Amino acid sequence: MAETPSSVRGFAEAGADLSLVGVSKRFPGFTAIDNLDLDIPAGSFFALLGPSGCGKTTTLRLVAGLEEPTQGKILIGGKDVTNTTSYQRPVNTVFQSYALFPHMTILENVAFGLRRRKIADAEKLAKEALDLVELAHVANRKPSQLSGGQQQRVALARAVVNRPALLLLDEPLGALDLKLRRQMQLELKDIQSEVGLTFLHVTHDQEEAMTMADTVAVMNQGRIEQMGAPELLYELPTTAFVATFLGQSNLFTGEVTGSSATTMTVGVAGVGVAGVGIVVPLDRAQVHRGVVTIGVRPEKVTLHRAKPSGSDRTILGPGRVMDASFSGVSTQYTVAVPGFGDVTVFAQNTSIGDNARPGDEVYLSWSPEHAFGLLDHPSASSGKFVADTDTGSLVVAEREKLEAELEES
Ligand SMILES: Nc1ncnc2c1ncn2[C@@H]1O[C@H](COP(=O)(O)OP(=O)(O)O)[C@@H](O)[C@H]1O
Ligand SMILES: [Mg+2]
After folding, report:
1. Which of 75, 135, 259, 393 has the fewest CB atoms within 10 Å, i.e. the most exposed one?
2. Measured from the CB, is residue 265 less than 6 Å from ligand 1?
3. Is the pLDDT of residue 6 over 80?
4. What is the DSSP string of 110-177?
């Protein structure tokens, strides 16, 4: 059976750029994606990070052609694919569920798509893909004889073997336990740099996104809040959502009371206590006047037994240690500072003895260059969200699609 060229998803030598231009997706009474612009350069490992329900899977389904945008355009490799079917797009998807065919061997599973497309050398290519995920030695086993981590590697091989210009990964490691997950994160990154394809990886796990991706886009309620290299997002978050979703932050709100050529001072007035001027570099602050929210990461804050003197650091206190929890490499302190609320401090466990205990009076300090100023203020909707649980129906749909293909062949 000869397929027409337009329906053949050719083997990609390299990854393709992906662009979403003004894409919206509205379901009856609900906007899942709101005017989304996204540019993902060819060959990059890009992570879309956000809480459950923020629109990650919907975005992938739009890119894969399983869903039609209400508005906007999708370009792959510079070509407008908005009106093409999913079969015409050089895209493969890996889901959390492996959806392997139980009665086929691992090699047959990986070669399946190639055989369907009458590709010569299907077996040789499938073996190469299994080599890539280091599973050549289990080629003749059945999926049930493999561990969860191995099955996910097979699913990855089965997608990569088609050499899609764009590989979509929807929470692919979600079903694995933490240790295996961390290991697979590193392996997946190695595989991506080896094959040079464009990976769009979706996750609600901030550590996973930061470990793996060159670029992370933080998504919230159908919009991208901030996008950039992981270090940049972490060191300089621009919104309260990003500052609290990607790691933890201490946030303070106050009015800008003065500025120099390079810094501004924000007066954060404690209730019933003297106000403190918190200095923030202008180039680390999104807003330079009025009432602003500023933040500092817990590991940038130092705990002191006595008030530090003659220092160019920002000093808060005295406060009282409310909680100290030891986690091995560090201790997390919660310090109640009158007028400022609870401040979180991470202290590395490098000192011997003399750790602060609940009830102790302490001072806090940090270097002004670690402070950052946000565009907005904390709201009820910022903060951590529960893990995704709603991908189940999509997995079932994908499995049904594969089974339908299998029956046809
Ligand atoms: N077919 C659909 N009809 C109506 N609402 C949908 C549909 N698909 C997804 N949604 C809603 O869109 C929002 C985003 O969903 P989704 O993209 O699956 O989020 P995520 O993958 O980030 O958890 C959710 O509130 C979800 O309930
Ligand atoms: Mg999802």
Report:
1. 393
2. no
3. no
4. HHHHHHHTT-TTHHHHHHHHHHHTT-GGGTTS-GGGS-HHHHHHHHHHHHHTT--SEEEEESTTTTS-
